[in-house]
Amino acid sequence: MAGAVQPLLTSEAAAISKYLDRGGRVLVTLSLETLRRQGPLEGLLEEWGVFLPSQLANDEKASVRGFDIVASSYGSHPVTSPLTRAGAKVHFQAPRVVVPIPANRLPADAPKTTALVLTGPEGRTLSDFDGREFSYVEGKDRRGEIPLAVASEKGGVSGLSAGRGTARLIVVGDSALWANGPLQSLGNRDFAALCVNWLLDRQQSMAIGPRSISEYRLNLTAPQLRLLNGVLLGALPGGVLILGFMVWARRRG
Q1: What global pTM score does this model have?
Q2: Are 57 and 123 in contact (CB under 8 A)?
Q3: 86 in any annotated domain
């Protein structure tokens, strides 16, 4: 479910719930368009240990522009272990807050839920929206490490391969981080691949892949080429000769 802009229908949420109950694998990325419009999706995710407050995540010390976040804090999980080892960062564009519900608030047979990516310790939630900007509300919002993505698993045995009937769910508070442009930013592509490979139980692929070799071509006009030849064949050797002559003259004097 990639960045839905309209709330799910009740029948759609019921179909997804039934699919998960049969051991399905679901990846959900959230769009800001649904931040103020609660729907059946929120109730479905709560059954899987994931709470979606109507809040935007913010971390001014890890922001490049606007409400984006360059995150480098990770939970302990197979999805994020390769990112932690590599010191990689994930660039969120405008993430919603995604909270793992504590185990003591869930039934005994509830899924195991883990925060994947978090803001730094200077992070905070923003809940007040005036139509243009989000702002912090004292007493309503909180500060600290704010979760931006969560993984949930039900039916599997820790440390073992996920067999048939094991349901897996990942909820990412931002859909724009995997758009065409941001996908190339920092560790976004690796994070996407790790999420998909974990959902599909591709244990052999749970690592950061090698970087492709980039080739660059420099196209010069004829005047630029002549100038470059003059600098490389004339100015640089000539400068060395002049400098050598000055040193020789100084020592003779």
Answers
A1: 0.76
A2: yes
A3: yes
